Amino acid sequence: MVCSDEYSTQALRQKLFFFLGDFMEKSQMARIQFNTLKGFPPAIDEKVETETFLAAANEVVDVIRTFGSLFSPVINDMAGNIAKIRKVYGRDCNKFKYLDDIIILNIDVDNMAADALLWLKRGLQLVCTFFENIYNDAQNTEVVKKHLQDAYEKTLKPYHGFIVQSTIKIIYSWVPTRSQLIGQGPQHDENIKVLTTYLPTMRWHLNRIDDLLKKHNLDNNCKV
Questions:
Q1: According to a count of CB atoms within 10 Å of the terminal CB, is the N or C end of the chain lower?
Q2: Residue 88, SS3 per DSSP
């Protein structure tokens, strides 16, 4: 017969075993499951649909949230720009069904949406380039800090002053590892498979928006 003290010890050990097992399983899970994202919408007559684009941009913000709380400045900036565009869109959802119309019909009237779209585009370009770097890394490098630094230098850095650059440098030093972001084994392979189609579609939208802003001289080089 097992005494109560021994039984309690065995029960505690069993609970601890299951806790550690559950912890290890969760710690090995990818923070991002790209197959759960709807992604960016297909182009309609070479125009970008506002509602579905903003929904896809919000998904990207949620992806960045998995990087950790230190990335809050990036998250807040992108979320704020999405909110500004949505505010203009909400004035007349039919009139502004496409991003192109929000920009073109507000030229010299109200450039709030154009400025917001410009900075949102740059933030999305950063994320897109970062995951393109991860995708194209044949060595599957675990530490992805260099991929994020490269993406920053190609996208946002030219528009940031010294103080912002210094702050960003500290933040980006804490980016999670490859395994933490997109997992290992089957999880990793599934994420890579989804990125095969997700990234080119996202890149098309960003290039389209880039062309739109430059066409109407709304892509300025001012630094913050």
A1: N
A2: helix
Q: Which residue has the tokens 């802003």?
A: 213
What is residue 160's three-state secondary structure? coil
Q: What angle do CA 127, 53, 112 make, to 5 degrees?
A: 90
With a cut of 50, say whether residue 20 has pLDDT above it.
no
Residue appearing with tokens 């994420």: 191
Q: What pTM value is reported for the model?
A: 0.85
Distance of CA 145 to the CA centre of its chain: 15
Map tokens 């912890």 to a residue.
Answer: 23
pLDDT tens for 171-203 read 988 999 999 999 999 999 999 999 999 999 999
Residues present in the chain in total: 224
Q: What is the pLDDT of residues 131-147, one digit of tens each?
A: 999 999 999 999 999 99
> Which residue has tokens 């920009």?
103
The pair phi, psi for residue 187, each rounded to 5°, is -60, -45
Written as one letter, the residue type at 8 is S
CA–CA distance, 67 with 152 (Å, rounded to integer) = 15
The amino acid sitting at 53 is F
Encoded tokens for 65: 């949230």
Residue 65 burial by CB count (10 A; 0-12/13-18/19+): exposed, middle or buried?
Answer: middle
Asked if 184 and 29 count as a contact pair (C-beta separation under 8 A), the reply is no
DSSP state of 98: B
